[in-house]
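Budget justification, computational time. The allocation requested in the original proposal was used primarily to generate structure tokens for proteins on the priority list. As evidence of use, we reproduce two of the resulting records. The first is shown immediately below.
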Amino acid sequence: MTDPEDWRGWRPNPDEPLAPFRRANASFVTPYLAVGGDLDTLAHDVAVGQLDELRSAGISHVIDVRVEWSDEEWVRERHADVEYLHLGIDDAGQRVPDEWFDTGVSFAREAVESGGVVLAHCHMGINRGPSMGFAILLASGWDAREALDAIHAARPIAFVAYAEDALRWHHGDGSSDLAADLERVRQWRQDNDLDLGRVLRAMRQYP
């Protein structure tokens, strides 16, 4: 079983980079959390290779946040030991309810504290999956800017469009900490020259 203090206290070390995925559309942010996009289930052999790679890398729990699809049955047929949470939402810029973060973060925390490794993924790995990953890091005691930097370093295409909603969930509306962190998110996107349209175009070249 993983000591909660170990995973909450982990921070990136540039001298010890996390192993990259070669097939799966995913990126490790910490040794216990990856974010990314979906399996290419329209190409069966490709998807099988992606799933096998995820499992070999230690992924034991999946949070699938796509409202438009779920691979739960497909995954369970091939790796019945993977715990799967389908927690779909749209990716239309809507306000994300606190309950979505409550459910996903609770699932992730229980997974990691029992020694598991979590993948939070959406379709492209730009907004919804990374936003859930951001909330998981916040709940683990990470500073907002530090968490965004770690996600961006692991997955440069991540725009994390629902970071603001994650902060509202984390701090509560009206909090002075919320106001400060919302400004920090705005500044973070500016500092990293993040524009959603540009990110989507860059996705075409992302390996």
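The second record produced under the same allocation is shown here.
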Amino acid sequence: MATKPTIILVHGAWSDAYHWENVILGLYAKGYKVRAVENSLKSLEEDIDNTIRLIGAHPEPVILVGHDYGGAVITRAGNEDNVVGLVYCAAYSLDESETINDVLTYRDPSPSVMNFIDTLDDYIWIKYDKFKDSYCQDVADDKAYVMSVTQKPIYAKTLNDPSGEAAWKNVPSWYQISSKDRIIPPETQKWLADRLEAKKVITLDSSHASIISHANDIVNLIDEAAKSLG
């Protein structure tokens, strides 16, 4: 590619676009144009559509990066013509017609499921006093506290929404595994990475919040993916 691709970042459950802060700054320092989707976490279809609209605003080559639930989003949105690469960060790389709950059913449940709260309006939260232990045990206490009180719950129905046609079957993909993940079991992540035949897999000594605690490693993986596509 004559110019660097635009990097579009897609966050996951209990998160927002600001969780990408350090990744954004790292990519910016390397000269990339970066954009970040703000997911509703209310509808997988809506979040996919929002991502596709953002892709459509950038006619140049695009690399999509998804964390957690964001992996389901980029799996479908990655079918857009100008998407040239997919990077999954401790994320769900679903197959066609597959849902997140399908993966959690025929693989292993979340190690922190006992710390989830399913409210009467069907949104899933993580208990505030269990957030750090469940999601980001390698993040500083003050940062983890802010993450816990600003967490964005996910609508339970989205876990049963299929992401649609799997872009990773046709688009080069990379995968980052978090070896100390207490949201998505590391063994499940390895299985997902093996299934999509990732061009490269890295394993970080990280909690689920790898995009925060190991942002430099994530930046380097994205940079390597972009350069390999050149």
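A brief technical remark on that second record: The beta strands are 6-10, 34-37, 62-68, 83-91, 116-118, 123-126, 154-155, 173-178, 200-204.
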